[in-house]
Design a protein that fits this description.
Largest sheet: none
Radius of gyration: 20 Å
CATH superfamily: DksA, coiled-coil domain
Structural class: mainly alpha
CATH class: Mainly Alpha
Distance between the termini: 28 Å
Number of helices: 5
Oligomer: single chain
Order of helices and strands: HHHHH
CATH topology: Four Helix Bundle (Hemerythrin (Met), subunit A)
Strand content: under 5%
Number of domains: 1
Shape: elongated
CATH architecture: Up-down Bundle
Number of strands: 0
Length: 116
């Protein structure tokens, strides 16, 4: 039995899938903000264009963070499917349930994470 069995892998699967859905919704809502900023000097002043470019850059950075989190979620779901969820990838020991409750995508126990 996996470490996740002791920490209820299905509970974590539901949390991970809910977060995945939330991130997908956020990505869809912010798609407009990530679009290319048009540099039409007739309709928008220079400062407004700079502000629009800054807003676009922030939206792109947020999307990059969402994509990274989605990758971690997918990896955690794959570990659940493979019955490897809840085990430290470095030392092989079980990851404490409280650590997984804080971050269900955790791949290392607290001791190995602090050594990194």
């Amino acid at each position: 039995m996996s470490a996740a069995g002791a920490v209820n892998a299905e509970k974590f699967r539901k949390q991970l899938e809910a977060r995945r859905s939330e991130l997908a919704d956020l990505s869809d809502m912010n798609a407009e903000a990530r679009k290319t900023v048009m540099l039409d000097q007739q309709s928008v002043g220079r400062l407004s264009r700079q502000d629009a470019l800054q807003q676009q850059a922030m939206a792109n950075a947020q999307e990059a963070r969402r994509v990274n989190e989605l990758r971690r979620i997918d990896a955690a779901l794959n570990r659940i499917d493979a019955d490897d969820y809840g085990w430290c990838e470095e030392c092989g020991e079980a990851i404490h349930k409280k650590r997984l409750e804080i971050d269900p995508t955790a791949t290392h126990c607290a001791a190995c994470a602090s050594n990194r």
